[in-house]
Target: Lrp/AsnC family transcriptional regulator
Amino acid sequence: MDALDGYDLKILSHLQNDGRLTNNELSELIALSPSQCSRRRARLESEGFIQTYRAHLNRQKLGLDLLVVIAVTLATHNRDNAKRFARLVEDLPEVLECFSLTGEMDYHLKVVTRDLAGLSHFVNDVLLPHESVQHVKTSIVLNVLKDFGGIPIQKPAKS
Model:
C-alpha cells in the first residue's frame, strides 16, 4: 500500500465504481494525462491491485429471486474433508461466496436460487448428501441493507 500515491488511489476508486472507464475519462476525473493513467493502470493490474474487471448483474432480473446464507458444519475436521468440501463448493454455480470461519459453524455460503423449491433441492439433494457435510443451517435473506459497494480506499496513516 505504501507504493501507492494519491493518483493511484483515485484510479482504483474510480475503476471499482466503473471498470469501463477509459484512460481519457480517468484523466478528466483525476487531472492526470491519459498516458499517465494508462501506465498507472497497467502497473496496478500487473502488481495485482486490480485483479479483474466484471459486470455486476441483477440476480432478480435473471430469475434468481432467493438469496440465502447457509451455515455448514463439516462431518469431520481434517484436511482431506475440507478439500472435499472446497471442491464441492467450487463446482456449484449457486454459491456466490464461501467463507471458512472460526466459531460454531465451519463455513458460510452466500447462495442464490430461483425459489424455495430450488433451495430445497440445493440443501437436500446437493449439500446434505455430500460426504463432507454434517449439518446445514439456512437463513433466507429478507432484505439486503447493504451490498458490496467496493473496498474502502484510503492512504494508511503514517506512524
